């Protein structure tokens, strides 16, 4: 659907009204000053802040305002007068068009410097609690091909870059790749992705080419029509096992020949699955996954422990980085073998089983029932007998009766989703008064908010940022809190 021209004029008028507060010359030859949260850069003009994307600190650029708010503007560069000394040459041909790896234009030391700065600034600005000196950020063991899971989307009308359009050449628009930034309905066809090790690229291209040659219908994301919808590839570097999940909008006689072709061409696939999904989104946690060939899971290994990963299982997407993260969390927990540990938001019980050998007993709580089942299986296959797991909404499960039944924990490990902990969960932690809390977070902003609430009874003793996602602005952070 094309935007109403009158609506567009109103939007542009609102943007221009705020932008007119800045003289035109102030938007020309602007030096980008610093990097802030979510990977954006910043320019300050008097009392107005301008957030800029697609740039690096030290760039000198002309800007075009794209969005206007009361106290800030958002802008993009239209011309570069000088490039920052912090820049490096991006290694991916899709950089700037694909929605991932947006920091490829920065050297890795620069990336980690700004991630460290982001953690420090966020904890002080939002948390407003006293923090010790932040430990140096732990680097990712690998900078390329570090992900064990990728999701690709089929589209019958793939996105063309400006260069492709200007070339005048004919392109096969049937695409299998990633979303372009900010557009759920625009898919860029990916030739080579540097995020996941082979045979990820080979499998994706083989499926795309087979579908093109055999006239299989690529999905229409807006109308939710077609046949082919989504492709998920999961790899396990530690064991070499490999899972492929094909999502289709509906049942069709062409599905099984496609799966047979993939299985024959890539005998290293140990789990081949498909899902029929005609919902409005690509999530399939409530749908049946059909294991077409091989096992219905793959396994990862860590310190002799094997973790079973099914199609619906959560597992940290950087396996080697996750090992670093879990070791830091375990070190912060200071376990001697006598402790009762609560592992909140336990997922598939990875952390719970990882620390169980150093604890007396571990109680895991998780919202997703399937994940709790995975956690129990992971304990069983590893012979871990001192864990138990419960499913349900954290704020409801973690009741006074629950704590009375299982005991007051010596250590709480909490690894919530990006939204952080519900205020009722924070309140329960304050009531429990566990001597130590290890807070693992993928979002320092919500972590800082929770730390401010916990400050009533806890002090922050250690802070350790961890880089799990090179070439992105995302950063994990581990905080140790001790009862005052």
Automatic annotation (TrEMBL):
Residues 20-79 form the TRAM domain. One of its GO terms (molecular function) is methyltransferase activity. Keywords: Methyltransferase, S-adenosyl-L-methionine, Transferase. It comes from the Bacteria. PANTHER family: RNA M5U METHYLTRANSFERASE, TRNA (URACIL(54)-C(5))-METHYLTRANSFERASE. Belongs to the class I-like SAM-binding methyltransferase superfamily. RNA M5U methyltransferase family. This is 23S rRNA (Uracil(1939)-C(5))-methyltransferase RlmD. It comes from Hymenobacter defluvii. The lineage of its organism: Bacteria, Pseudomonadati, Bacteroidota, Cytophagia, Cytophagales.
